[in-house]
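<discrete_fold_record>
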Amino acid sequence: MKGEFFLAALFFGIISCNNSNKTSEPSLSETNLSQVDSVQYGDIPENARQIAEACGIQNWNKVSEIAFTFNVDRDGNHFERSWIWNPKSQDIKMVSSKDSVNYNRSKMDSLTMKTDAAFINDKYWLLAPFQLVWDKGMEFSTKENVVSPISKDTLSQLTIVYPNDGGYTPGDAYDFFYDKNFRIQEWNYRKENSPEPSLTSTWEDYKDFEGIVIATMHRNNSNNFKLYFTNISVKTGN
């Protein structure tokens, strides 16, 4: 189930709203979501931990439900789909203009696997700082005093490269450009660890939802592409 519904699809093709077509777009991480309520840093670099903590990963174990609408605007076209996710039970509901699907990640069939691929993508955009801690097997590297690709600000850069085998993002790389407060300001996606980015966007309009801090807006350099989140709600407790 590799290569469906991921970053390049969103950037180049999601506006067609034809989710049934297979493409060669890059894929994203498939975290074991049944374990994301525990924070185990292990060999995670200090700056990756600080990026995750700057967005409230230490509060994640309190979250009982998170809901959000994932939106993409490109060249006058709009696409959206909404999610309700219970991280502890792994119950998920997706609602789009064409469909509504309820499923549990421990009991998936071919239909729900397709929906789950879309969920993994949208969740990655929503919670990428947490993926730095949740995901396994990546290679990390850091550069200081780097000129960021869009704003041209001088920032720090954390690069992660996923393993070549397995998961949703084999061999792909991400460059996170973050400030002195360990808050991501921009990122690159580089398919198969290519030298040139396949996609670059901002991280902006951060908002706090019950201690979970989310960048609600992402734009490209020419500002003809926006990926953003609305209708975000976080419930805590049982």
